[in-house]
Amino acid sequence: MTKVRVYVAYKASILDPQAQAIQAATHKMGYQEVTELNVGKFFDFDFDADAELAKEKAIEIANELLANPNMETYTVEILDEQSEGVN
Amino acid sequence: MTKVRVYVAYKASILDPQAQAIQAATHKMGYQEVTELNVGKFFDFDFDADAELAKEKAIEIANELLANPNMETYTVEILDEQSEGVN
């Protein structure tokens, strides 16, 4: 079993009003230390597969389902791999 | 400057229809290896502060703004700390 996290976020060229609104809210609340904010989604998968296959499948799923290639980018991270029988 | 990532996700006790729908979609697409899926949001902050202060502020912002304490949990991770003047 392999745990894989897929991060999906807007491309840098895409304006994100949600992130701007949250950053403005932090400033109104007195957190002037916040100089930049980006927001995205993450997807934590358990795969019944080894790390190599799980990463490959996660990239396919990100391309075909999770990310909008026009506006978003994704990254894939292996969180954990467990031997057969352990889980 | 410190980069901090805040993860916000539903508590394990909260049903997440979005995650269920996405998991069902992966199965329909032939990815039977997916045995579990959890979905959440992440918030990437740049703080004009050292790592210790940035983490403290990020926890306050998560508590006061980002996470719904009734349904959600959050974790805070320091991604990167840069010396003054470097950035």
Automatic annotation (TrEMBL), chains A, B:
Statement: the UniProt record of this protein carries the keyword Nucleotide-binding: yes
Subcellular location: Cytoplasm
Biological processes per GO annotation: 'de novo' IMP biosynthetic process
GO annotation, cellular component aspect: cytoplasm
InterPro entries linked: PurS, PurS-like_sf
A Pfam short name: PurS
Pathway: Purine metabolism; IMP biosynthesis via de novo pathway; 5-amino-1-(5-phospho-D-ribosyl)imidazole from N(2)-formyl-N(1)-(5-phospho-D-ribosyl)glycinamide: step 1/2
UniProt keywords, alphabetically: ATP-binding, Cytoplasm, Ligase, Nucleotide-binding, Purine biosynthesis
GO molecular function: ATP binding; phosphoribosylformylglycinamidine synthase activity
Catalytic activity: N(2)-formyl-N(1)-(5-phospho-beta-D-ribosyl)glycinamide + L-glutamine + ATP + H2O = 2-formamido-N(1)-(5-O-phospho-beta-D-ribosyl)acetamidine + L-glutamate + ADP + phosphate + H(+)
Main location: cytoplasm
Broad class of enzyme this protein falls into: ligase
Enzyme Commission designation: 6.3.5.3
Entry similarity comment: Belongs to the PurS family.
Described function: Part of the phosphoribosylformylglycinamidine synthase complex involved in the purines biosynthetic pathway. Catalyzes the ATP-dependent conversion of formylglycinamide ribonucleotide (FGAR) and glutamine to yield formylglycinamidine ribonucleotide (FGAM) and glutamate. The FGAM synthase complex is composed of three subunits. PurQ produces an ammonia molecule by converting glutamine to glutamate. PurL transfers the ammonia molecule to FGAR to form FGAM in an ATP-dependent manner.
NCBIfam families: phosphoribosylformylglycinamidine synthase subunit PurS, PRK05974.1
Quaternary state and interactors: Part of the FGAM synthase complex composed of 1 PurL, 1 PurQ and 2 PurS subunits.
Protein name per UniProt: Phosphoribosylformylglycinamidine synthase subunit PurS
Organism this protein belongs to: Lactococcus taiwanensis
